[in-house]
Amino acid sequence: MANPREPFEPDTIYHVYNHGNGNDLIFKEDKNYRFFLERFRKYMSPVAKIYAYCLMPNHFHFLLRIRNEEKLGSYFEELYPKERRSAMSQKDIADLVSRQFKNMLISYSKSFNSMYNRRGSLFLDNIERISIRDDEYFTNMIRYIHFNPVLHGFADTPEKWKFNSIHTYYYADKRSSVSRREVFEWFGGPGQFKRFHQHIQEDEFDTINHLKLE
Questions:
Q1: How many angstroms separate the CA atoms of 121 and 109, rounded?
Q2: Residue 198 and residue 200: Cα distance in Å, rounded?
Q3: What are phi and psi of 54, to 5 degrees?
Q4: E strands of the chain, at which residues?
Q5: Cα(119)–Cα(121) distance, rounded to whole angstroms?
Q6: What are residue 128's DSSP bridge partners?
Q7: Nearest CA to 205 among 130, 129, 149?
Q8: How far apart are CA 9 and CA 202, in angstroms?
Q9: Are strands 48-56 and 128-132 parallel, antiparallel or unpaired?
Q10: What residues form DSSP beta bridges with 156?
Q11: Which of 37, 149, 183, 186 satisfies CB 3.0 to 4.6 Å to 161 for a cystine?
């Protein structure tokens, strides 16, 4: 079971996800999805590489790698000069990465609440995360995230869901902050990536069904 307080470590891959508070939707219109991705790129691209994502009406998934210690240290020293440290501990890094996530969600929530005359928390309190240290798990997680709209009944195929990073991989001329080249190299090229995404068996969902958010 995921521990929402698992610390973020440099150069480590995480499956990151969160859910709307109660039965609340976190995305109501296309412009909400687009704005969320803008906020995510602004706050998270400096501290993480993005490998896959999927946004759905009441929750989201991202697969990302936290950047190395040197890059994190340089970025945070520039961002928070008053907190400049001679050396950053692992706890410093974990806390600052968590702060980036928190600031991103707050920024989005304020805009969403203002737009829909809403009050209160939009998301669950903690960004949930699971570190991924197994090659097969990483490979399957990319497909799991892309197939999540199919699992939840929002689309028949991954590419029929708009707010899904699979479009970045299927259309090479599409601009994106996703680390497409690195993922293609991992799979052995675009062809292998597409073949791996042609279908998914129900029992493959079952092996990671503990990650499904109702």
A1: 8
A2: 7
A3: -155, 130
A4: 13-19, 48-56, 59-66, 128-132
A5: 7
A6: 17
A7: 149
A8: 32
A9: unpaired
A10: none
A11: 149
pLDDT tier for residue 200 given thresholds of 50, 70 and 90: low
91-146 residue pLDDT tens: 888 999 999 999 999 999 999 999 999 998 999 877 899 999 999 999 999 999 99
Q: Please tell me the distance from the alpha carbon of residue 9 to that of residue 97, in angstroms, as a whole number.
A: 9
Tokens found for residue 74? 């340089």
Closest C-alpha to 113, from 25, 213, 39, 40:
25
Q: How far is CA 195 from CA 162, 163, 210, in A?
A: 20, 21, 25
- HSE, side-chain direction, 13 A CA sphere, residue 99: 10
- pTM exceeds 0.85 for this model: yes
> For residue 138, which phi and psi values (nearest 5 degrees)?
-60, -45
Nearest of 179, 210, 39 to residue 109 by alpha carbon: 39
| Chain CA centroid to CA 93, Å | 18
Partners of 129 in beta bridges: 16
Is 2 strand, coil or helix?
A: coil
SS3 164: strand
Q: Which amino acid is at 156?
A: D
Distance (Å, rounded) from C-alpha 121 to C-alpha 107? 12
C-alpha gyration radius of the chain = 17
Q: For residue 211, is pLDDT > 50? A: no
